[in-house]
Amino acid sequence: MKPSKLPMTGRCRCGEVKFEITTPPLMTAACHCTGCQRMSGSAYSLTAMIPVNGFSVTEGDTVIGGLKGPQLHHHFCPSCMTWMFTRIEGVDAFVNVRATLLEDPSWFSPFIETMTAEKLDWATTPARHRFEGFPAMEEMPDLLAEYAANG
After folding, report:
1. CA atoms within 13 A on the CB side of 61
2. Which domains are delineated in the chain?
3. Sign of the C-alpha dihedral, residues 88, 134, 124, 36?
4. Strands 27-31 and 45-51
């Protein structure tokens, strides 16, 4: 699914950090990697891949947390420590936003599942496509086009 109304707003649990999304997602996903399981405290993390020019933090500042590697920058609220979004170094096209932080996440459904090799046996989603790891780069144009056409 895609959001029916833009812009969309979201916030961390305590409300200190707020953000706005002004463009539809490129795609939505559920990631089953053990890192996402640990950071979310759940079976998987949910992501809306938002074009960089359609995402902005409108109030407050974030801190980098989680795995502090050179490639992944996980942004958290400094007060309540809510994991809000992830920027991937070298990927300037989108920001991975935690969709459940939106004021209205009812439109969200994961289109793809990633890292299913690490998923908990009982964890299921309605995703249309499943990948043991991440989709191959050559698969991305077709996945993005299918999501854009069908949501």
Report:
1. 2
2. 8-143 (3.90.1590.10)
3. negative
4. antiparallel
Cβ-Cβ contacts under 8 Å for 100 (sequence gap 6 or more): 46, 108
**End-to-end distance of the chain based on CA atoms, in angstroms?**
4
CB count, 10 Å around CB of 72?
Answer: 16
Q: Which residues contact 23 (CB under 8 A, 6 or more apart)?
A: 6, 50, 51, 53, 54, 55
CA pair distance 22, 54, nearest whole angstrom: 5
| Tens of pLDDT, residue by residue, the chain (151 residues) | 677 799 999 999 999 999 999 999 999 999 999 999 999 999 999 999 999 999 999 999 999 998 766 788 999 999 999 999 999 888 888 999 999 999 999 999 999 999 999 999 999 999 999 999 999 989 999 999 999 998 6
Q: Taking the model in full, what pTM does it have?
A: 0.93
Instruction: Find the length of the chain.
Output: 151
